Amino acid sequence: MANIGIDLGTTHSLVAVIIDGRARCLLDDDERALLPSAVRYDDEGNPVAIGYPALEAATEPGGTTFTSVKRFMGRSGTEVAEEARLFRYDLAEDDNKAVRFRVGDRDITPVEISSFILRLLHSRAEECLFGRPGGAVITVPAYFDDAQRQSTRDAATVAGINVLRLLNEPTAAALAYGLDSAKDGQTVAVYDLGGGTFDVSILRLESGVFQVLSTAGDTHLGGDDFDQALAGVLLQQAGVVNADGVTYRTAIRAAERAKRALTDAHSAVLKATLAGTAVEAEIDRGSFERLIQPIVERTGDACRQALADAGLEANQIDEVVLVGGSTRVPLVRAYVERLFGRPPHCDLDPDKVVALGAAMQADILTGESELAEDMLLLDVVPLSLGLEMMGGVVERLIPRCSAIPAAQAQTFTTHVDNQTAVDIHILQGERELVGDCRSLGRFKLTGIPPQPAGTPRIKVEFMVDADGILRVAASDVATGNSTSVDVQPSYGLSEDEIETMLESAIDNAESDVDERLLIDARIEAEQIVNQVKKALADDAAMLEPGEQGEIEALLEELATAMDGRDRQRISTLSHRVDEVTAPFAQRRIERDLELAIQGKAAAEVAKELGVSK
Amino acid sequence: MVCWQCHESTQGAVCVGCGALQPPPPNADPFQVLGFPRRFSIDESAIEPAWRSVSRQVHPDRWAGKPAVFRRMSLQWTAAVNEAKRVLSDPLARAWYLTTGEPRAPERGGPQPDGDFLETIFELQMMSSADPVAARETVNNLWDTHRNALNDAFEAWENDAGTLEGVGVILAKLQYLTTARTQTGA
């Protein structure tokens, strides 16, 4: 089974795969690689179109076309209120929870909208490959925080995609350019100006290892801003003060056309019918560049930050790679060349680079890659992770740019006599004060025996996996009481919500796809059950009190689930069994290791004595 | 070392015989993880290459699609490798680890410098606005003195000619001086 690479972009998305040893983007029936990241809902809130048809219908009444939803992933309603106003999206009455768009009587999440885009790409791959892809690597901006990564994963889960890895976009781009085969020990800057996000990363390539030295960016900077600036001119010209959704989107589309034309031509015509008035304005490249100059210059701050974090000067960068459709704008290229003092690479289509690199990484993860057998990508956390301390100060446990996977533990104590519970508040960001950082979640460790303040020792452990997603565990060192969470981001979706979306997604999905997913889940569950049963039969003596009961109860529950058709329940329970039996498995390995050492020692003694076994 | 899976003798993170990933060293000793002698004076330029070479063997990308037990170990290993690089690359963290066996100083309650030293630091802060050049020079001199004291303590210890008793305080002082260096731009 081939693995696929997906670039889930702000303005458009792509899917790529390795065919005959080369990464290629897969095309739709009209031979287009790009799928606009747009989903249209009718006025009742039913999804009616995805991609080009959704975009084409954007200016028509009788529904809403959602674009640029990547900007809303993992954000709260309050955080994106301004953004939603710019896009003329109605937000559900809110609150400080994950953002929801209001259409008719329905609340729609960015995760749901993204899942439709992912599902369409996945089925495109299925058609092209004549079979279901094994798994997918999905790219995210290097700057994405925990909540945004989690939301991307959730969208893939809802789409029924097996996510092998979330990969940072710049890393994918460097991989696509094959810069690994160039001279050893070089540094590369990846400048990615997409539709809605800007990223710059500094990478070092040494003996087949791709290491991200630093990354910086702005999740609110991109080609959309150019469009908005141009649309502003057009709306002003038409004398429209408070544009409604349709008028605004018409202006944006006209602006986009003019922007594209200005890549090659020296002047273009902005033309649209706004609120019943036909408007036409000619704009030359000079005025366009003056208009966007301040936006382009904002990318310089992040570039300087990334260089400083990597401990490098601009002239120490060996290669510069351009990614993202917005880097076609001549002013952007000129600016990058001036900033780094060298002409950037732009041989590959900047729209496709990331998807191509994702496909290569997906291929590497099969473990049978002929492309880059020896290649390894090492990523870093984009933002520091820490905990709230007394006085609202943040203690950083994992500083930004730490290599991942990363684990850190810190021991804390209580501040009040006889305190039996502590609140663990997890934060992400670079600032000193809690209020200035982003809250990722909170949980409570209870059951601490009453003791004087300062006596208990509470150990908090952070674990960031290879996707950059955080897991936190807290335990009372004395009692061993522990609690752990997959950090459910404060602005993410709950398990229940994802479950509900999955159910409704399955209702809509083709039943044969559904059937195969169910079979896969059962096979995986069966493997786990067999392993655990064998271990229980061999080494029941090594179980801790209570462990056997818990494991057996879970196995029974899983067996019942396997008779049913709820694949989500089957895989959740499978993972739960794997998790619960992990300490048992660990003990068996340690025992085997000890036996092996003793066995070896005995064999050596025997040899010394001249006795053969 | 003996492989937990095939029971044959092996060395390194991955069994030379059966290819099984081995459990990470006990308590993830950073020196053992990256294959360095347990000494304060190490060849710092060898850390990066060692880190890269172990990462290549243990990284989750290498174990994707393998049984869960390998994937779990791979995660533990890689986290340990990254932490080991941090500890070994920073002389203060390295010294702290050798002294206490802990990867980082506690939130509070660690060794503290004497009052005279704190007084000096306080004076330095006053001086840094009045006479930044002099402040920088003082900080640098203090830094060199304590950094040498640290080297001497470890050299004695490594030659079985002394203990690490006073090291905690020297490290606490160096921590203060690190901050002071940043503040004065030294």
Topology:
The complex is a heterodimer of chains A (613) and B (186).
Chain A: E1 4-7, E2 12-19, E3 22-25, E4 35-36, E5 38-42, E6 47-50, H1 52-56, E7 63-67, H2 81-87, E8 101-103, E9 106-108, H3 110-129, E10 136-140, H4 146-158, E11 163-168, H5 169-176, E12 186-193, E13 198-206, E14 209-218, H6 223-237, H7 245-264, E15 267-274, E16 277-284, H8 285-310, E17 319-323, H9 330-340, H10 353-364, E18 376-378, E19 385-389, E20 393-398, E21 406-412, E22 422-428, E23 438-445, E24 458-464, E25 470-476, E26 482-486, H11 495-508, H12 511-539, H13 547-563, H14 567-580, H15 582-608
Parallel strand pairs in A: 1-10, 10-11, 12-17, 14-18
Antiparallel strand pairs in A: 1-2, 2-3, 2-4, 5-6, 5-7, 8-9, 12-13, 13-14, 15-16, 19-20, 19-22, 21-24, 22-23, 24-25, 25-26
Helix pairs in contact in A: 3-4, 5-10, 6-7, 6-8, 8-9, 12-13, 12-14, 13-14
Chain B: H1 30-33, H2 47-58, H3 60-63, H4 68-89, H5 91-100, H6 115-130, H7 132-158, H8 167-184
User: Rg of chain A, please?
Assistant: 27 Å
Task: Round the mean pLDDT of chain A to the nearest integer and report it.
Answer: 84
Terminal-residue CA separation of chain B: 47 Å
- As a whole number of angstroms, the C-alpha radius of gyration of chain B is 21 Å
